[in-house]
Fold this sequence. Notes:
alpha+beta; six-stranded antiparallel β-sheet; four-stranded antiparallel β-sheet; 12 helices; globular
Amino acid sequence: MDNRFENLLHLIQMQSLKEGINHTLIPxxxxxxxxxxxxxxxxxxxPSLFIIIQGKKLVTINNQTIEYDSSSYLISSSFLxxxxxxxxxxxxxPFLSLQIIFNLKQIFETIEQFSIKAKKTSxxxxxxxxxxxxxxxxxxxxxxxxxxxxxxxxNALSDLYLKEILYRLLIxxxxxxxxxxxxxxxxxxxxxxxxxxxxxxxxxxxxxxxxAKSVNMSISSFxxxxxxxxxxxxxxxxxxxxxxKAKSLMVSENMDITGASFSVxxxxxxxFSREYxxxxxxxxxxxxxxxxxxWIKY
Length: 298
């Protein structure tokens, strides 16, 4: 194992990790742990860099499947509905991965601060991909995660190290997933703005025509570029986000199915249950029961 990975593994193992997502003292850094391989699970990725320290994972979006491990990284430059499963993990060597979260403002600031030249394009592509990890990216990541040993330095240095990571991503591997967001008049940027609006107004009545008009796009062009970037239509994206939010309410706030369905905008709990089962592949009652039983196990 590379010395950099040994350092990262040591830092992560020093944390008191529970199964699943672990938030750290660094706001942009989460650690995920799983002591077992998993079945396919649906989730929403936010703009993030994912680096596996130990184990392997399979991610599927639309008809594209990406398998990656510690030799590569995954980059998601938007909020994306994906399916994923951990394919290599054990009690002795649990799956461990880092999630480093970023936003559009930080991308723009990095481009300006480091005078990065990105070719303007009207084309859009799926906002997720995997690339071979580089030594420079691994070094920059180590500097950020090392702040966990010196929490008093986090406020002063975490943003600086995060921009260094974004810089490494922007100048390597032709990372169009990030570069396509670099132009305020570009289609990718416009779609990203509507995604932020949807996420902030998820439970309101949202009209696709209004979204397209708000970013000066025709409805057909908006649909086309939205689906290219996210792999789903705007309406399906809204539905998936609402289902994910309802699941979160039932798990974290012990809300019942009826309450959760009404909270996210459904008028019929039976319709909600049908759509939940169709998307997650399991009924909401059984899904939540299984999740809570897993919590008790660990």
